[in-house]
Amino acid sequence: MRVLGIDCGTECTGYGLVELDAKHELCCIAFGGITMSRQTPMAERLCTIFDKLSQIIEHYKPDQVAIEEVFYSVNAKSALKLGQARGVAMLAAASQGVPVTEYSPLSIKSAVVGYGKAEKEQVQMMVARLLRLEQTPQPADAADALAIAICDLHTSATLHRQAAGQ
Q1: Which of the 8 DSSP states describes residue 75?
Q2: Mean per-residue pLDDT pooled into runs of 10, the chain (166 residues)
Q3: What DSSP assignment string belongs to 83-130?
Q4: Three-state secondary-structure class, residue 27
Q5: What is the CATH number of the domain that holds 86?
Q6: Which residues does residue 33 pair with via DSSP β-bridges, in sequence order?
Q7: Per the structure, how many domains does the chain have?
Q8: Which pLDDT score is estimated for 69?
Q9: In which order are the strands placed within the sheet that holds 64-68?
Q10: pLDDT given for residue 59 in this prediction
Q11: Which pLDDT score, from 0 to 100, does residue 96 have?
């Protein structure tokens, strides 16, 4: 199973592709960040996110895309911009027939670190350890995207085991 995790943002959208191999081990396929300037108009940034994610999906052919659920923000304007980026990411996946799953920040941290209120640095360190990477993935948004993909793979594996036991 191959999952593309996406950490949405309007200045940097992180992506991380993780696969569960035949030995049920996690393998990092690719990761990176789609960076955009604050000076670029929002419509152009959203178009860039859509185009780049569409290319990544077409190239790597993930079985599933996983993104972080909307979290409540004190700044309504920031939350709206994040929602737009999430919508574009979901559209990029759906337009190619790839299912999308969403996870809360608490679920992602719990799946990767074992503690839902873990610090960002703890998540990044565990991502590197779980994927047997020599360094913490950069940019930080890519590490977050890899964590989202790992969460999805762990959740899918658990649901599969539960279904098999019934």
Answers
A1: -
A2: 95 96 92 96 97 98 94 75 94 97 94 89 94 94 96 79 59
A3: HHHHHHHHHHHHTTT--EEEE-HHHHHHHHTS-TT--HHHHHHHHHHH
A4: strand
A5: 3.30.420.10
A6: 14
A7: 1
A8: 87
A9: 26-35, 12-20, 2-7, 64-68, 100-103
A10: 98
A11: 97
Domain that holds residue 44: 2-164
Element (H, E) at 132: none
pLDDT in tens, 2-34: 999 999 999 999 999 999 988 889 999 999 999
Report the alpha-carbon distance of residue 33 to residue 140 in Å, rounded: 9
Distance from CA of residue 108 to its chain's centroid?
10
The half-sphere exposure of 104 on its side-chain side, counting CA atoms within 13 A, is 6
Strands 12-20 and 2-7, how do they pair? Answer: antiparallel
Q: Are 1 and 10 in contact (CB under 8 A)?
A: no
Q: Is 14 helix (H, G, I), strand (E, B) or coil?
A: strand
Beta strand pairing call for 26-35 and 64-68: unpaired
Q: Is this prediction's pTM over 0.90? A: yes
Q: Which residues are catalytic?
A: 7, 68, 141
Q: How far apart are CA 97 and CA 122, in angstroms?
A: 34
